[in-house]
Design goal:
Elements: H1 5-18, H2 26-61, H3 73-88, H4 90-136, H5 145-176, H6 182-207, H7 212-221, H8 223-237, H9 242-262, E1 274-275, E2 278-279
Antiparallel strand pairs: 1-2
Length: about 280
């Protein structure tokens, strides 16, 4: 089976559709309530920072004419030269402004995701378990609830350490190449998509108690499918209000991607995806 970027987007869409299934509703309500509370709190913080952001962008994009009448001849030449350069490179100011807005939304979405994922990890594990049972007819191995709760929280902290560690490396490289503008943007987008793929495809693997290194190997086997899924989740998380509903859809979509595209053919139940109760070859 080949890696295809449409597979990842399709998995997220299927995951969103599965949220309407009656069997899954009890495992969706609590994560949604958690998301709603955190959304209100983080959005209030974000709105409180918009004033400072607007002032910065306005100063960056402002192009006020320079009055050289009271200046000496050489200062007037320098001032006119600086004004000319600012006018010529105004496009660069716009690029910087756009990058700042995107970074602001990215940080907002990323913080929202980190906090909600840690708090809602046990509920997401239950949701992924029920989605897999719905898709394949087979549930992951049973285990005591308390054991499952502690294991999922520990797994979230393991992922967080991974995200922070490699995130710092990506940040340093982005700073060293910031003069190119485009390289940091591409690196940041790919890294964000990779993080989202790891975050949400991990739940079905963790339910089978597969090691974290195996998760990375599974995603690398289907890079385009994994990155397109993670990229779609990342973009959806940047949209206020929509990000309330993204997490359960991403958990279900990650499970769909695992069952339908990422599992090896030798794994139990591989290739037996059911879509809305109908078999799919």
């Amino acid at each position: 089976m080949t890696s295809n970027p449409t597979h990842g987007v399709d998995a997220l869409i299927q995951g969103a559709r599965l949220l309407g299934r009656r069997e899954l509703r009890p495992f969706i309500i609590v994560p949604l309530l958690i998301n709603l509370v955190l959304f209100i709190a983080l959005t209030a913080v974000m709105l409180s920072q918009l004033g400072g952001l607007a002032e910065y962008l306005n100063s960056l994009l402002a192009h006020e004419p320079v009055n050289t009448e009271t200046m000496s001849w050489w200062r007037a030449i320098l001032a006119k030269g600086a004004a000319w350069a600012a006018n010529v490179f105004q496009w660069l100011a716009w690029l910087i402004a756009i990058a700042v807005v995107i970074l602001f939304l990215f940080v907002y979405g990323y913080l929202f995701g980190i906090i909600t994922n840690i708090i809602a990890a046990p509920f997401n594990g239950f949701l992924a378990e029920k989605v897999e049972e719905l898709l394949t007819g087979q549930a992951p191995p049973a285990e005591p609830m308390l054991s499952m709760v502690w294991r999922t929280i520990g797994r979230e902290l393991r992922k967080l350490v991974y995200f922070i560690g490699w995130g710092l490396v990506i940040f340093v490289i982005a700073m060293l190449t910031s003069w190119t503008v485009f390289i940091p943007a591409i690196m940041g987008g790919l890294w964000g998509a990779w993080c989202m793929a790891i975050q949400y495809v991990d739940y079905p693997l963790d339910n089978h108690q597969r090691p974290f290194d195996e998760l990375k190997s599974v995603l690398m086997r289907r890079k385009l499918s994994s990155l397109s899924f993670g990229g779609a989740v990342m973009l959806a998380k940047m949209v206020p209000v929509l990000n309330i509903f993204v997490m359960p859809a991403a958990v279900a979509g990650g499970t769909v991607l695992w069952v339908d595209r990422l599992r090896r053919h030798g794994d139990p139940g591989a290739g037996r995806l059911l879509n809305d109760g109908r078999s799919q070859p």
